[in-house]
Amino acid sequence: MLTKGRRVAGRGEDLSAHYAFGPHQDDAIIKHRLLTRTTTTRGEPPLKKLQKKFMSFAAEIEKDADNTRDCERLYKSFLQEINTFELPLLKSKAVVDANLREKGSFNELQVEIQRQILQAQTDIEDLKKQLEQSKVERQHKEECEAIRKLISLQPPRSETEKFIADLGKEITNSEAESAACARTLELRKKQFALLLHVVEGLQISIEYEQRSIADELRAAAEEPKMSMEEGSGGGASDAMAVD
Question: How many degrees, rounded to 5, is the angle at CA 203 between CA 199 and CA 207?
Answer without folding.
Answer: 175
